[in-house]
Automatic annotation (TrEMBL):
This is TetR/AcrR family transcriptional regulator. One of its GO terms (biological process) is negative regulation of DNA-templated transcription. It comes from Saccharopolyspora karakumensis. The keyword Membrane does not apply. It comes from the Bacteria. Coiled coil: none annotated.
Length: 211
């Protein structure tokens, strides 16, 4: 089995290497989403990326590692997006109800419809033998939110005996519920008024339980 190359590189060659790696990941994501893990071949990925098959193996070792690399890249983008929403919406100087609603609304109306999230869901839903994210990485967004809820509890804004459970309840009452409804009726994704009301009801239910 081939192993990824780790030889030292000059700055110019490093840039070309990074561009090839990005092209391989882009091509692999497109094919894994449209064709599936089992059907997609390394030959097809190499052709789509306009690199040699050996180059694909030099960068990733095998198809499973490449699939996982695609998942991890998408996961990193989503985690960065959600952390930004946490930092910018769940601020200390903002009314708690308003902050929770703004955060959930932003994730629902901006992150969920994004191509990154849509493709991530399709990739992560593929049946074995498609790989999964490494243990711990798939719940990083929840852990980031848990830290903020713990801060709210320390300030006395929330009564949170179990921060992880509180996060799970908040997500279930707002963003996950919205996502389930959108899955059933995709047209609802364009109905911001209906989503606003759904999320507002979820935030109110959460605050009744945790204040």
């Amino acid at each position: 089995m081939a192993t990824p190359s780790t030889a030292p590189q000059s700055p110019g060659r490093r840039k070309r290497t990074e561009m090839k790696r990005a092209a391989i990941l882009d091509a692999a994501e497109e094919l894994f989403v449209s064709e599936g893990f089992e059907v997609t071949s390394v030959d097809a990925i190499a052709a789509r990326a306009e690199v040699s098959k050996r180059t694909v193996y030099d960068h990733f070792g095998d198809k499973r590692a490449l699939f996982q690399g695609v998942l991890e890249r998408s996961g990193d983008v989503l985690l960065t997006t959600i952390r930004a929403a946490i930092d910018e919406e769940l601020t200390d100087d903002r009314d708690l109800r308003e902050a929770l609603h703004a955060f959930a609304q932003r994730v629902t109306t901006e992150t969920f419809p994004s191509s990154v999230y849509v493709n991530f869901r399709r990739l992560n839903a593929q049946a074995p033998p498609a790989p999964r994210l490494p243990d711990g990485l798939d719940d990083e967004p929840e852990r980031s939110l848990e830290q903020r809820f713990t801060r709210y509890a320390d300030r006395g804004d929330l009564h949170v005996p179990d921060p992880r459970r509180a996060v799970q309840h908040f997500i279930a009452l707002t963003m996950r519920l919205a996502l389930d409804v959108i899955d059933e009726d995709p047209d609802l994704a364009r109905n911001t008024g209906e989503l606003h009301a759904l999320i507002a009801d979820g935030v109110d239910a959460f605050l009744r339980a945790y204040r």
